[in-house]
Amino acid sequence: MGCERTPSKTPLDEYRPDLTFKARHPALDAEFFARLSILDNGCGISKEVQCKIFDPFYTTKDVGKGTGLGLAMAYGAIQNHHGVIEVESSEGEGTAFHIYLPLVKEAVLPDEQVEQQFDLINGNGETVLLVDDEKSVREIGEAVLKSLNYQVITAADGLEAVQLFSENRDTINLVILDLVMPHLGGGEAARMMQEIRKDVPVIFATGYDREDAMACSTLPERCILLSKPYRLDELSQILRSLL
Fold first, then answer.
1. Residue 207 CA from chain centroid, whole number
2. How many Å apart are CA 184 and CA 189, to the nearest integer?
3. d(C-alpha 215, C-alpha 3), whole Å
4. CA–CA separation, 218 vs 215, rounded Å?
5. Of 22, 59, 115, 143, whose CB neighbour count within 10 A is largest?
6. What gap in Å lies between CA 228 and CA 137, rounded to an integer?
7. Are 43 and 92 in contact (CB under 8 A)?
8. Between vectors from CA 241 to CA 240 and to CA 243, what angle results, nearest 5°?
């Protein structure tokens, strides 16, 4: 028999962060949070999966049965409201998701600013080279970019990306690279591409913390670091600003 995962309870309470919470999330400075917990009594989630669970397009389901966008979108929405979502799980012992949202006395953003956050800007048929070592990320990313009216070429690692860029140097308008990949990392691949054509803009999409990524990688010029998970409207606006 398969492992049945049944929701058990969803408590909502007021939470005052302790020192451990503040150490995990130093950027969150609210005095009190509303904490919503979603718990189940299923088979749990492995530590390996927990490390990737909020990455956009990451899924443990078969191809065509899941996009891997659900938790990434939840993460992004909560982050946009100055909150955080955490997962707590042990294999065989169930799973708990905890959502923390700051308790405020008034709206943080005016209505007109909220509306601006969700403006999508389509492309004009430009060609984007999308590079990621995970097949599901490439497939969904290609579909997203095409929905924004871009032509897409995909590569599975940095070496393949450099080869494809060399072969299509006159038609590729922009490159989106995962920062950490086997064979050749995104930073080095981008530098090699800019040696071929120095004016090509690059977007690095990474699940690592922005400060950690900047510290461990020497990034080339004319590039933007985009933290995963990212919003579709944010990506569309960055693309247009670079193109």
1. 6
2. 6
3. 41
4. 8
5. 59
6. 12
7. yes
8. 60
- For residue 129, is pLDDT > 50? yes
**Burial of 156 from C-beta contacts in 10 A (0-12 / 13-18 / 19+):** middle
> Would you call 110 helix, strand, or coil by DSSP?
coil
**Nearest-angstrom CA–CA distance, 78 and 56:** 15
Token readout for 30 is 């609210």
Measured between its terminal Cα atoms, the distance across the chain in Å is 53
Paired tokens of 236:
């569309």
157-191 pLDDT, tens per residue?
Answer: 999 999 999 999 999 999 999 887 778 888 889 88
165: left (phi > 0), else alpha (psi -120 to 50), else beta? alpha
Task: List, in order of start, the domains of the chain with CATH numbers.
Answer: 7-102 (3.30.565.10), 127-242 (3.40.50.2300)
pLDDT digits (tens, 9 = 90+) for 137-161: 888 888 889 989 999 999 999 999 9
CA distance 85 to 97: 7
Using a 10 angstrom Cβ sphere, with 0-12 exposed, 13-18 middle and 19 or more buried, the burial of residue 185 is middle
For 215-233, give the DSSP string. HH----SSEEEEESS--HH
CA distance 84 to 198: 39
Over the stretch 72-127, which tens digit does the pLDDT of each residue have?
Answer: 777 877 887 889 999 988 888 888 999 999 987 655 555 544 444 557 889 999 99
Q: For the chain, what's the residue count?
A: 243
